[in-house]
Amino acid sequence: MKKTNSVLTIKDLSYRYDNQTVLENIHLVVPSGSFLAIVGPNGSGKTTLLKSILGLVKLQKGSIELFGTPISKFKDWTRIGFVSQKANSFNSGFPATVFEVVSSGLTAKLGLFRFFKHEHKKKVIEALQSVGMEKFLYRNIGELSGGQQQRVFIARSLVSEPDLLILDEPTVGVDAQTVQTFYNMLEDINKKKGITLILVTHDVGTISDKVSHVACLNKHLHFHGSAKEFDMFADPDLSQFYGHSLQVITHDHSHGR
Length: 257
Prior knowledge:
Number of domains: 1
Radius of gyration: 18 Å
Oligomer: single chain
Number of strands: 10
Strand content: 15-25%
Mean pLDDT: 83
Strand order of the largest sheet: 6-7-8-3-9-10
CATH topology: Rossmann fold
Shape: globular
Helix content: 25-40%
CATH superfamily: P-loop containing nucleotide triphosphate hydrolases
CATH architecture: 3-Layer(aba) Sandwich
Low-confidence stretches: 244-257
């Protein structure tokens, strides 16, 4: 697939709901192959930013380019995978196997009524292997834990081989013991598959040794830089930005980030 140096370029993005400014003068560039964490308090504009990137809300001011193409002209949405806060809202009684859920991620490329071939099943298995869920191929999705279900939904996004994967607080509803393993998996997807990741999260300290870049959003973009620079960011500065006391756990980045 065609790669560009910049997967996402945002310039001077502002957005208002009624008389309330939600985003103001956002400038953001996401290089190909990077792993960006977007952090910010509730109501900081993170959801609106994601909706803007995914083309779900109309631009009011500023510009967004995906893979070098203005979003108004961008058509190849199969290059972008999206995983929402599924664990909070998924109907556990939904009668579908893990294979059926993941294979539905190929619908956009194959068409709704195309038959699956051996090569397509292979892609499903490979996607499940990427998230450590290949052993659950024919298990009903409702029988899995919240963390396992979320892994399956990530596999569903991976099966179409996207260049960019966007995750909106994917650990909501996932037990604390599983969270670290979950982030290790995302790091592997980024490094081994070369997929650019954008992760919206509240786990500021936990994730900072996994990502390459961090963006702190609270209506304005208060910080955007490398994870190493973020780890050196003073706690009082972050607490002022968040509006409450916040402690960031620093990590050793000697592993190459």
